[in-house]
Amino acid sequence: MKILIIEDEPALGSAVRDRVRQAGHVVDWFKTLTDARAALIASSYDFLLLDLGLPDGNGRDLLREIRRDCSSLAILITTAQDQVSDRIAGLSEGADDYIVKPYDLDELVARIDAVARRYAALPDNVVMVGTIRIDLARRQLERNYQKVDLSAREWAIVELLARRPGAVCSREQIEDALYGLSDDVESNAIEVFVSRIRKKTGPGLIMTVRGRGYCLAENTSR
């Protein structure tokens, strides 16, 4: 997943960013609501970790803005122990879960995964392409009933395409899903990742649409 972290405490924000990246996610971290709004315009995210007490306002303002747009963005709010009213208000205004500071980083990752599973727990969370089975909820790919090990970025490409069967994803869309706003992207990075996926899954999973991008093979079913 691509996760946006809004946390103004430098030590905590840095630790959270590193731990969430370690769990295999793409992460952008900012410290203010202003930067958060700019990031949401510039990029697409699957998950928002939102601190409520920020230097330029209350995170609930951003929460309400996102939910007014009927966004399917998963949101987990973080609060101090004495902000019970904020936690209740945040949940009623559309947050999916909350965690109280100080928190254990492993618990945070577990809560992120739990919320993400709720969003993925749909009837079409398994995609079949021939003998390849893509389980979006478990973040797992099998070929001929054998699990295929993919790196975090290889999986991100497979997941992006699997969630858009029949649609062509441009190189720019794939780069946006794989990299944070401050990451350097090599010119042939996507081609390299796609080549690695094909070596692991066979050439029939991802198709190249010349001049446009990539898509899953046409024999895709849910």
Topology at a glance:
Elements: E1 2-6, H1 10-22, E2 26-30, H2 33-42, E3 47-51, E4 53-54, E5 57-58, H3 59-68, E6 74-79, H4 84-92, E7 97-100, H5 105-120, E8 126-129, E9 132-135, E10 140-143, E11 146-148, H6 152-162, H7 171-178, H8 189-201, E12 206-209, E13 213-216, E14 220-221
Parallel strand pairs: 1-2, 1-3, 3-6, 6-7
Antiparallel strand pairs: 4-5, 8-9, 8-14, 9-10, 10-11, 12-13
Write up what this structure looks like.
The protein has about 220 residues and is α/β, with parallel strands linked by helices. The protein is about 40% helix and about 25% strand. It contains 8 helices and 14 strands. The strands form 4 sheets. The protein has a 5-stranded parallel sheet, with helices on both faces. Strands 11-10-9-8-14 form a 5-stranded antiparallel sheet, with helices on one face. α6 (about 150-160) crosses α8 (about 190-200). The longest helix is centred in the middle third of the chain and has 16 residues, at about 105-120. The protein starts with a strand and ends with a strand. The model has no long low-confidence stretch (mean pLDDT about 90). InterPro entries: CheY-like_superfamily (IPR011006), OmpR/PhoB-type_DNA-bd (IPR001867), Sig_transdc_resp-reg_receiver (IPR001789), WalR-like (IPR039420), WH-like_DNA-bd_sf (IPR036388). This is Response regulator transcription factor. Pfam families: Response_reg, Trans_reg_C. Keywords: DNA-binding, Phosphoprotein. It comes from Gluconobacter vitians.
